[in-house]
From TrEMBL:
This is Major facilitator superfamily (MFS) profile domain-containing protein. One of its GO terms (cellular component) is plasma membrane. Pfam families: MFS_1 (PF07690). InterPro entries: MFS, MFS_dom, MFS_trans_sf, MFS_Transporters. The keyword Cell membrane applies. It is found in: Cell membrane. It comes from the Bacteria. The chain crosses the membrane at residues 20-42, 54-74, 94-116, 147-165, 171-189, 218-244, 250-273, 285-303, 375-396. Keywords: Cell membrane, Membrane, Transmembrane, Transmembrane helix, Transport. GO terms for molecular function: transmembrane transporter activity.
Amino acid sequence: MKLPSPKEYVPATPAGRSFAVTSLINAVGTGLYLAGSAVFFVRSVGLTNAQVGLGLAISGVVGFLTTVPIGALADRFGAKPTLVLLQLWRAGGFVALAFAQGMLSFTLVSCCLAAAEAATQPMTQAVASATTEGTDRTRTMAIVRTVRNFGFSLGALLAAPLLAADRVWTYRGIVLGTAAAFVLSAAMLSRVRTATAATVQKKVGPLTALRDFRDWRYLLLTAVNGVLNLHTTILSVGLSLWALQATHVSAGFLPVLILVNTVMSIVLQVPISRLVDREGGAERALLLGGLALTACCLALALAKAPSSAPVAGAVLLAACVLLTFGEMWQAVGGWELSYEFAPEDSKGVHLSVFSLGGTGQRIVGPALLTSVVIAAGPAGWIGLAVVFAAAGLLVAPVTRMLRHQSAPVPVEEVAS
C-alpha cells in the first residue's frame, strides 16, 4: 500500500481543515479525561469499582435511547448547530462531574453526558460530510480519525503530571480541562462554514422519529456494522485480559500493543480511505474488516498455546495488527455506506440510527467478551471469529437490498 503525500492528510476545503482542528482540540480534552477518569472516580467522587461500572452501564443505556431523538432535532435545526450545542452540553456536564460526590450525582451527570456523547458521533459525521463534496467526505473522516488518535495520545500525556500530583484538585483539574477543550471546540466549530448547501429536512418530533423509523434494511446494515464494531471492546477490554489470563506475556507488554494500534491508526487510516474511491469499495472495506477481525480472533485463540513468552507475544502482536486493520476497514466502510443510504431529508435520524450499532456494542460488548468469549477460552475466540466472518459476508446482500430499495422507478412503470 502506497503511503500518501503529506497533502493527503489535509482536508481539501478550508471548512474541512477548520473542522479537523476542532476535532483535534476535542480529542485532546477526551484523552485528558480518559487517562485520569478511573482515578478521578475513586479518589475524587468517592466511588467503588462496582459503583463506577453500574453508573456507566446506566448512562450507556440512556445514551442509546436518546441518540435518535437528538438526530431528529438535528434534522430540524441543522447538524452544525446541534453539534455546537452538544459540545457545550458536554462542557457543562464535565464541570458538574468535577464536583460530583457519591453514586447518585455521578450517575445523573453521567447520564446527561452519555446522551450528548452518543449523539456526537453521527453529528460529527454529518458536519464533516457537509464540509466536503463527493467521496472526499470519507477521506475527511479518515483525517478526523487520525487527528483524534493523535489528540487522545497528547491528552493522555498532559494528564500524566496531574495524576502524579495525586491531589483532589488536580483530578478535578483534569475534568475541568476537558470541559475547557469542549468550549473551545464549540467556539471554533461555530465559525466553520459548510461547503454544501443545506437540504430541506423532514420536520418530525424526536419521539416520532424513534417510533416511526421503518427502514429495516438500514437497520440490518446498522446491526452488521455494530457486530464489526466489537473491535473497540476487544482492544479496550478483551486483548489485555486475555493476554494476562491466558498467555505467558508480562503486563509490561500490553502498552506495546496499544502503541502499535495507535501508530498504525495514525499512519494508515488515510491511505485505507482510498478504497472507497473505487466502485463497490465501501462494501469491500466492510468485508475486509470482517475477515481481518476473524483472523484476529483465531490468532488470539492460538496465543494460549505457546509456553514461551516471546512466541506468545509475537502471536498477540499479529492479532493486534489484524485487529487494527479490521478497525480501519470497518470505519471506512461504515462511514461511506451509512451516509450513502441515508436519505437526504433525514440524514440526522438515519446517521443516529446507524450509530446505535456502536453504542449497543459498548453496552453489551464488555460483558460478552468477559463472561462468554474469554470465559470459554480458545473456543470462545473461535466462536467470535465465526460471528465476524458471518457479519462480513452479510455486507454484500444487505447493501444490494438497500440499493434496490433506493433505485429509481422506471418511467414506463410510473406511466402505467
